[in-house]
Amino acid sequence: MRPPAPAPHPETWIEIRPAGMYCVPGRFYVDPVRPVDRAVITHGHADHARAGHGAVAATPETLAIMTARYGAEPEQNRQPLRYGESLRIGEVTVSMHPAGHVLGSAQICLEYRGARIVASGDYKRRADPTCAAFEPVPCDVFVTEATFGLPVFRHPDDRAEVAKLLDSVALFPERCHVIGAYALGKAQRIIALLRQAGWERPIYVHGALQTLCDLYRDHGIDLGDLQPATAGRKGVARDEFKGEIVIAPPSAIADRWGRRLPDPVVCMASGWMRVRQRARQRGVELPLIISDHADWDELLATFDDVGAPEIWITHGSEEALMHAAAARGYRARALALVGYEEEEQ
Ligand SMILES: [Zn+2]
Ligand SMILES: [Zn+2]
Predict the structure, then answer these.
(1) CB 3.0 to 4.6 Å from 330: which of 131, 184, 271, 325, for a disulfide?
(2) How far is the CA of 216 from the centre of ligand 1 (A)?
(3) Ligand nearest to the CA of 314
(4) Quick one: CA torsion of 245, 251, 256, 261, rounded to 10 degrees?
């Protein structure tokens, strides 16, 4: 009897193409940045989940987010895959595992002839009341982001950041606190963290966040009393927002919409707020360092947790993370994928 063939190394069956990471024996892309025939999607952020693909496999939550953003697709083109479920595509077994990044975010595990690669998309390791916690999946190659892949990035405790916000609200009862937060994930997490911290008043949300807040609610995430923040609406007194908390997309806080709020304290919730200059550039008075990505220590700890001998790095500060991983004995490779933005900007 012949001994079984050794498992084929993922570099022999995963290709980096202009549209993204391509799985040859399954004939699909993971998070393609261009429209393709078949895609497997890690999560709903716009740079990972783009419009225009043919068949899409993703978690039911991610598919719902894509439908909310891009409109409904014929059902036969959508393959929902829950955490822990697996699906055969071509010669490859595909399964989804929580990434802890936003609602529905998944690490995608690809298994081919005994070899296993996990594409984690974006991930974080901190507890988040709005999504399932990251689960380490043992594999031969772990594909990681490097958004905060520099030693300067060490995120503080999110509860301390929310406490800072509530202290400021108590200190300035005549002012309105407006928080810039990314529409998918960050906004809902801030709201949930405020509820955990005991803030029971209505929270006012910019119209651009309403759909995704409703979607979170439909998936069982309790956000409490949310009211539309119709700043400057005719007939509404500016005073209405005194002492209140308003959540808006980052682009709205500094524009005309934001200026209609009564003497706003401009806040921004992002891992980038660790960089004071970024906060200053954006006119942020109260930076809140709250991130949906792993920080430097968490990236490196995750490599140990998943136990993969090899790490592939997709986007962010690839160089620094690659060197740190190599120094710890991992075989590390920068994929230099393009098209993924720093979504927390
Ligand atoms: Zn993301
Ligand atoms: Zn990303």
Answers:
(1) 325
(2) 16
(3) 2
(4) 10
**Fold held by 158-288:** Rossmann fold (3.40.50)
Ligand nearest to the CA of 291: 1
* Locus of tokens 């393009």: 338
pLDDT tens readout for residues 159-198:
999 999 999 999 999 999 999 999 999 999 999 999 999 9
Identify which of 126, 71, 131, 127 has the alpha carbon closest to the alpha carbon of residue 97: 131
Q: Return d(Cα 187, Cα 206) in angstroms, integer.
A: 10
- CA 261 to ligand 1 centroid distance, Å: 30
Query: The pTM is what?
Result: 0.95
The Å distance, Cα 73 to ligand 2 centre, comes to 24
CATH 3.60.15.10 residue ranges of the chain are 10-152+293-334
Q: Which CATH number fits domain 10-152+293-334: 3.60.15.10, 3.30.230.70, 3.40.50.1100, 3.30.420.10?
A: 3.60.15.10
Which span out of 161-165, 258-262, 274-278 was modeled with the highest average pLDDT?
161-165
Residues of the chain with CATH 3.40.50.12650: 158-288
CB contact at 8 A, 311 and 303: yes
CA 345 to ligand 2 center in whole angstroms: 11
Q: Which residue has the tokens 């550039």?
A: 281
- Quote the CA–CA distance of 46 and 106 in Å, as a whole number: 15
Question: For residue 35, which of 7, 70, 80, 86 has the smallest C-alpha distance?
Answer: 70
> Distance from the CA of 43 to the center of ligand 1, in angstroms?
7
